[in-house]
Design goal:
Oligomer: homodimer
Helix content of chain A: 55-70%
Largest sheet of chain A: 4 strands, antiparallel
Strand order of the largest sheet of chain A: 2-5-1-6
Structural class of chain A: mainly alpha
Distance between the termini of chain A: 90 Å
Number of strands of chain A: 6
Strand content of chain A: under 5%
Mean pLDDT of chain A: 75
């Protein structure tokens, strides 16, 4: 148990290291040579010029202006100065809302901390539990840290002081919910406003349709075209089929890699013109025959280019390369909103429509997964996630045992003399297990991302959201619970299954106050120093300079070498949630932890605001669609805090308080449900009214807009972008008032089998009621019907391929229905 | 523990009583005087004539044809003869699908029983656990029933025989899921086919919109009209506002009651013309001044009629009597389907649209509940349901203590001598607590229905579905768990909280085999005899004859006196689920219970098929929308059976089996999710394709259809039906191509405040990008925006009250947008 001095020392060490990072950053960012590392966003926007174009040679690399070093902290006001609307415009709504999460942390915890310090600290400090314990029991060997004097542990059992904690739990819960509600409202408004004021984007007009049923007579493209022409007659505009271009994309990547190598060797050759650079044909150029590198790579690229062109043509010509999914565009946003929100056919597993993601947000590989497979994948991945979360220590432990001293000695015998030295041995033995764990934790987000990919989400944003959810669960179980109840998660699970449900909060509740000092240290190391390291960008700095030396030839190359990175949403957000959780849990138990959390939130807000403005370049814009997740996770934290307090108080024998405290999580859960109903649809659906307003305005202000040209190539697989081959089979005329000709009409005379059922349907719908005879017909029909599969059913339905003609509507329709009656007449 | 003889005796007694009921039914149904009690459905359909019109006087009341008595069981083949399609046509899809549940029970349990008898019975019987126990331990005082020899209890712990039970658990689970899947598919198809072949109904064209925001300038009716004209320009047709006519409805009921009394006294007077009947003015005519009854009631009815007319006028004239909800009809089913499935505005708590229920299915009182109140009500009702389920014995016990002998003696001292007799005393003491419980159980469904009403559902079908859910929970906790673990539910809950999660299935598992005989008796008493009582219809029989004597004067009166009743869905379905649960739980444990369940299902199928054909008259038709609930509850039963088996086997020390068995509920849950995705939307949404097909056909076959006349009065509160007062303000012309004139235009010049924000919005949307200056403007605006409430926002949006004009579309639009820019120009 730590004393206040211990904490102070730790705090100063961590503050110092954070400060060191900041100073390093302040110096490095002033050097023109690092300009593209610390301000890439401005380069990408084309606003910032290369600093090397003017000034002396030295000035190109090192900043000699002393005055600028004196104002080395001036990035702080600069980061804070940009107003929010400008920030949204500059960095996108996602980033602007993301940094609001830190602000939200401040809004929640500053008042809570003030109140807790004013009320709970005195109550705890004068509780005198430890004094009585030490004096009465003469337990000199147990020393209580000074921190613990400020915590609830210092309040004796059955004390009336505990009433203060219960009241505070209510106050904190209501305050948190109030702030969360307000924030949800603000973010919802920001999102809706952002969507409303957005410029025209192809995804506003487009719907992604998946699980297009296969049709023996028509290609996917024709089938999609006919289906939407019939079912959305006035609104359907055009569609783009999706090609399975995964192979091609691989080739393009490979070619890029080869080109990079070629450039590297060409540069090398330019620097030393007298010596042709060589490489080896083996793996990574490490072994094999030595050959001339430039010639080799030029040849390889040419070979790959030819293959790529062949593959490109194959993909476009092969009907099997078309996956049963398509992007369907509508004449107006209203039409797209309608199509995205409605069910198209009676079979809910085909013709599934949803809003199309932004073109750059589409995850192309997952567009073709059939319905049943998708469900199976989700089942398997749920099991895998469970295994990963609760058994993750098992493989780690195995790797750690394999990677111990003895086995290293066996595999690499020449290292034996070195290893056998005692100092080296102990170092490795202390170091290796840790590094294995560290590597696993670094790799974990990637594993989770792959799992999400297997689950079959079609947008990168959805993939990231799902990964974040998985990571959050992992951190909750392995970091929070894992720290509180020492032991692996699997052991915990066993323990929990054996304990009674009311004992679990007790177990956690008892050890919560004891872990306060650990978590304070954790906040300082992971939070304070970690955030400071974020601003320094050590890894991108190194990579940029390496690339600069080996690859960069032109200005364009330099632009490409610049890696602005992005907010790593699926990693940072779950980690951030841990701070909310800690703050909420300790707010009633050990309020002295709160200032550390507040410092973290304030500092992180500053740093990330700076990064968002100057560095990060988001890959897509989801218009803050992640907010419901953030909100939900904070509420999960709140409920955990309530349960732990419940457990803690029940060990303090304050049994009468249980009913009061049980009400809290119920109310919190209700609040969650309420917010979900109140706000979530703004993040999932697009209201018709807003769509109509935008449509109307656009039609009025830009009556000449060529929407077709705008939408035609919007959803093309990136590898086809800028390709020479014409892709979408564009309709000849922009005339949608016509009967859809289907190839099936030719089949009507021959095989009447599949239309029998639907024919019977109509006969009924025609409304002739002639008693028994009709009922019998109905009888036969339903008999058929039950044996029928839904799939056939839909196929039969499609025979109604007719649209309305505005002009001579009724005539055309009568004709059509005449046809239908022909096909359906077989029953009578 | 019962022997086979005990069970046989009990079975014969119950079979006999069931047979007696059946014989009574067979005799009573042949009497012409009872014809309207046992065949009301045919009278309602107008197919059956009154039998009293021909034949002698005696024949009018008693059937003297002996041959008919000989064939007294001929209702059985008659009930089975009607084919399903005819049944659907005759009784509706709800009834036809409901009796399929019994068939489903047979489909599931007959193969399971055969397999269990072939495999598990021999395995159990030769297990020999009891023999070893009795011989080794000399426990002669514990006698094991013969039934138990056939149960899993007879298999010794750690026996390899238990493997058979695990395999069978898998087989049974897969069989049940397979049958459930097939049945879900059939019912889905039946429903879709039923909807597709249905004749035109107003609810196909109509959407219920709730939470219409209030508007200072417009009435609810105008507001609804303008909103839908703008947002569904081509499809909106007309709307009907909803009046708060609860008071009026009460008056109408009261009047009917008075009229009944008047008829009663008039009849009395006719029979004894020499004496004017008298009544008393006090409560229920029991005390007060004696007056002439006919005059009194004639007067009262006249008075009430005047009041009613006044109230009727008040409701129609008073704008405050209009609730913020409306029924909005569309030109086509497609339009209604689109509107019902989409979100209208950015605020998801207003303009909520959903499919309108059938007119006779609407529950009018709940149409006006605001969003937040609705959520609060649900929270309170959830708490109340929890209390009712787990503490229901508390009030019962209190009533029982109050209603004991001593307190009766105190309240009614004149009974004292009687009570003090020993025999009477013991009879009352044994009888009263039972009757209190019985009364409570009879009242319970009504209480649950009232709770559902408070929760605010707007359709009677939804109310019944919710009540059924509540009743199911109640039966599960209090009948199933309550029998297995003796004690009140509250005690059980306490017990469970103290036990560890893995112990709970053990506790249940251990006592499951011991309760088999009890449940067999339960099935025979409640199932066999109960179903036989259902067909006898004792209560409707009595009521009909009473009414016939005192009230009936004309044929019409006799029609009204007939009470066909209906399938009491919220009561019978949850009770039925108990049999599925018992069958599934005991299929692996004590398979000897299965034949009793099978007899129940077969018998109930027969009886209910007869009732559905001849008796019940359903109040509404939901097109089998209850099926997802049935499906889910059977799966809940399946999962409970899996958990109990898990617990039972863990007490048998077959710990190795746990992983095998844990997989079962997970797979079952996944199956539930899969079915939900696969089928449920067919029960919640109406696909656009189907809507379009029906629309197209109708337009072709009935081009002259006057839809307006058809829809105009469809959704009028029943008390206004046939009223003299014109209700819906019908639009003058059927011309929807015009600009909507709102009263707000006059406000534009004066107060520009509320339009400021939206003005800024447009400016942005106009696409002028001039860097900083715009960003600043945006800054101000978002500042405003955050402080803005969504309510105002929507108000401001409405200012875009413009629709498209097909002819000179663009011009009109440009004009409109000109207006908008005027209003919005204040920002610059």
């Amino acid at each position: 148990m730590a004393t206040v001095t211990d904490i102070t020392v730790s705090a100063s060490i961590n503050s110092l290291s954070a400060l060191l990072f900041l100073v390093a950053f302040a110096i490095l960012r002033l050097q023109p040579i690092n300009d593209r590392v610390y301000f890439p966003k401005w380069y990408l926007k084309g606003i910032r010029e290369n600093p090397s174009t003017c000034g002396s040679y030295v000035k190109k690399f090192v900043n000699l202006d002393v005055r600028m070093y004196l104002r080395f902290l001036n990035w702080v006001p600069a980061a804070l100065r940009m107003p929010q609307p400008e920030l949204i415009d500059h960095a996108g709504l996602d980033s602007a809302v993301y940094i609001r999460i830190y602000l939200l942390g401040l809004k929640i915890f500053v008042p809570i901390a003030l109140l807790a310090f004013a009320v709970l600290l005195p109550v705890n400090y004068t509780g005198g539990n430890f004094q009585t314990m030490t004096t009465t029991m003469k337990m000199k060997d147990i020393t209580f840290g000074e921190i613990d004097k400020f915590s609830i542990s210092n309040v004796p059992p059955e004390s009336k002081r505990l009433f203060a904690h219960i009241v505070m739990a209510y106050v904190f819960t209501f305050w948190t919910c109030y702030i969360l509600y307000k924030e949800y409202k603000i973010v919802t408004d920001m999102r809706l406003h952002f969507l409303a004021s957005q410029i025209r984007r192809p995804d506003q007009f487009t719907v992604l349709v998946r699980n297009v049923p296969s049709d023996p007579d028509e290609s996917v493209s024709e089938h999609v075209d006919h289906f939407f022409r019939v079912n959305h007659p006035d609104q359907y505009f055009l569609h783009q089929v999706v090609y399975n271009a995964n192979n091609l994309a691989k080739m393009v990547d490979q070619k890029k890699d080869l080109q990079n190598r070629l450039i590297y060797y060409t540069n090398k050759h330019e620097r030393k013109p007298n010596k042709r650079p060589t490489t080896k044909t083996g793996f990574w150029g490490l072994w094999g025959k030595e050959i001339d590198a430039i010639d080799y790579y030029t040849e390889e690229i040419e070979k790959l280019s030819k293959e790529e062109i062949a593959e490109r043509e194959r993909v476009i010509d092969d009907p099997k390369a078309v996956v049963p999914a398509a992007f369907v565009s509508f004449r107006s946003r209203w039409g797209a909103a309608v199509c995205a929100q409605t069910q198209q056919t009676r079979n809910p597993t085909c013709w599934l429509t949803e809003w199309a993601p932004e073109p750059r947000d589409v995850y192309w590989n997952n567009l073709a997964i059939p319905f049943v497979e998708l469900n199976l994948r989700k089942l398997v991945m749920a099991a895998a996630l469970f295994g990963l979360t609760f058994c993750f220590m098992v493989p780690i432990a195995i790797v750690q045992t394999l990677a111990n001293i003895e086995s290293i000695g066996k595999v690499l015998p020449f290292l034996k003399p070195l290893i056998n030295k005692e100092s080296v041995k102990s170092f490795i033995q202390g170091f290796l297990p840790g590094i294995v764990l560290k590597i696993f934790l670094l790799v974990l987000p990637m594993i989770l991302m792959e799992m999400s990919k297997i689950e079959g989400y079609v947008a990168v944003s959805a993939l990231e959201a799902r990964s974040a959810g998985k990571y959050h669960l992992f951190l909750l179980v392995n970091v929070f619970l894992g720290t509180i109840i020492t032991g692996t998660a699997l052991q915990q699970l066993k323990e929990f299954l054996k304990q009674s449900p009311s004992e679990i909060p007790e177990t956690i509740g008892v050890s919560i106050p004891m872990k306060a000092t650990f978590f304070i240290t954790y906040i300082m190391v992971d939070g304070w120093a970690g955030v400071a390291a974020e601003i320094l960008r050590v890894v991108p700095l190194a990579i940029y300079h390496l690339k600069n030396i080996f690859l960069v030839k032109t200005e364009k190359d330099r632009d490409e070498a610049m890696d602005p990175g992005s907010l790593l949403w699926p990693i940072t957000e779950p980690r951030l949630q841990l701070y909310f959780l800690l703050g909420l849990v300790y707010s009633t138990v050990t309020p002295i932890l709160l200032p550390f959390i507040i410092v973290f939130f304030a500092f992180a807000y500053l740093v990330f605001r700076h990064q968002v403005i100057n560095v990060y370049n988001q890959k897509y814009e989801s218009a803050a669609s992640f907010w419901p997740d953030v909100h939900r996770r904070i509420l999960i934290g709140l409920m955990i805090s309530q349960f732990t307090l419940l457990g803690l108080l029940s060990t303090k024998k304050a049994a009468n308080s249980t009913p009061f405290l049980v009400a809290l999580p119920i109310l919190t859960f209700w609040f969650h449900r309420f917010c979900k109903k109140r706000f979530e649809s703004a993040f999932r659906k697009f209201p018709l009214q807003d769509a109509l307003i935008k449509d109307t305005l656009e039609r009025a202000t830009e009556p000449q807009l060529d929407l077709k040209a705008y939408l035609k190539d919007a959803y093309i697989h990136p590898v086809f972008k800028g390709g020479e081959v014409e892709l979408t089979p564009v309709d000849e005329e922009d005339d949608h008032h016509y009967l859809v000709a289907t190839k099936r009409t030719s089949r009507q005379a021959g095989t009447q089998e599949p239309s029998e059922h639907i024919g019977a349907n109509e006969e009924n719908a025609l409304g002739e009621e002639d008693g028994k005879s009709e009922e019998n017909a109905l009888g036969e029909e339903v008999g058929n019907y039950e044996a029928d599969t839904l799939g056939e059913d839909v196929g039969a339905n499609d025979e109604y391929a007719l649209t309305e003609d505005d002009g001579s509507k009724d005539d055309a329709l009568v004709e059509d229905v005449g046809n239908i009656e022909d096909t359906g007449g077989v029953v009578k």
